[in-house]
Sequence to fold (550 residues):
Amino acid sequence: MNGAQALLRTLIDAGVTTCFTNPGTSEMHFVAALDTAPEMRAVLTLFEGVATGAADGYSRMAGKPAATLLHLGCGLGNGLANLHNARKGRVPVVNIVGDHATTHVGYDAPLQSDIETIARNVSTWVRTSKSAQELSRDAVDAIAAATGPSRGVATLILPADVSWSDGAQPMPLHPFAMPPVATNETIAAIAGALSGGGKTALLLGGRALREPALLAASRIAQATGAALYAEVFPTRLERGAGLPAVERIAYFAEMASVQLAGLDHLILVDAKAPVSFFAYPGKQSYLVPDGCRLHELASFTQDALGSLEALVDRLGAREVKPLLQEPSVLARPSGALTTDKACQAIAAVLPVGAIISDEAQTSGSKLASLTARAPRHDLLTLTGGAIGQGLPVAVGAALACPDRPVFALAGDGSAMYTIQALWTMAREQLNVTTVIFNNRSYAILNIELQRVGAEGAGEAAKSQLDLSTPALDFVAIGHGMGVPSVRVESCEELNAALDRAVTEPGPHLIEAIVPSAFSGWKLKALPHVMNALGKIPQPMAKALKRKIAP
Fold:
């Protein structure tokens, strides 16, 4: 075998059977080797950010890593934003990045770059393979780094001559130790905090947001009165009717502070202490209340489910029934289309087992509350905050779960970052319904412009956040990439488009023309309302928070 053939066989034997590709000259031997490895599904993308985001979405839903095939440092650089999101979500991804042949590096060719330095920004593990004989071992180490207790992005750099050289052999994946459960001392201390009076809460993240862990956490909450919170942007949250409710921490720091106010103990389970996304003048970045004691039941490298189950046993809560949400059927909205009504229409049609890739930004502010008791579904969110994830993650999720309908919800601005994902949806005939909320602005940045206290913002500043001139035509873009597309401007049109998308196989795009959720007096009043949240009585502050971002 040559290096590329042995690499493919090593990946396949380790369970890595999907690769999202955007290859160039240096990767041609890998491309040719695909014909020797029919078990590997290679999925072509038109932009590296689609490949990396799709690998992220696939891994979130498949429970095993996908690979990417990228061209040199420039190709890797084009995919960095969605690799950043995967890193923050601790999602296993194996990057295969082609490089110049080792004999060619010294000539500083036009595409020569320091790939390792680029990769380290987003990778937990980086290595350049030195020979065909060492390549399979390097691949095994990459897979182990991606899937092991520290899980994340691993980047294997593949020089062209290592790929084309003969004498390589595949290698089996070596076993690694299972992540440990929290110590008896930690479990005892946290059980004492939960049983000792005061206001307590569990903050769940990562693997603690799947059904078994949610059931265990709900038993703990029912036994002790603790509140259940989830990270702002969960990697994968199983939710809906028949599962325990868990309240996500708000994106806006002022609202998150309202949620956490008065806590005496906050227990982290596969999550980090909450902080604001950005610094704001005169406001705190660390959101754990003063006087609240922080506990860590399970770190990122520990067994979250096992630790929760051990805490259940310590509390004697094994027979306690978890609190499950009852199903609720929402009425179809009617009349003029708004962001809230659009979210209601989606919630009303959501099938059992759906997967939502949510990058709706401000347009989706009511989505969580409206889908809370919808049929069971998975929610995939923007873990690292780098927009352009929603459509590619939907591609990966659809390939991982071909029997489940996928909804990609995106704002108009964020959709344009990786709009090429539509072409891959059409090429692979994926069951993805893409809903683009077109309010013709970067609406979230209009809010941030108000919140950061930037002075003197006039027409020049506001023009940098406006997308109305020229108006984006997503129906034309969708048709141009092979996806049946329709524009809707009323609830009745949206309801009909959703029905058609759910019943007809293959991809669909719905461009929903909506007003901004926050505009006019609402936009001007929002910073003042949020500044007041810490100064008014807690019941009133919580009521305002629920109204703005339930």
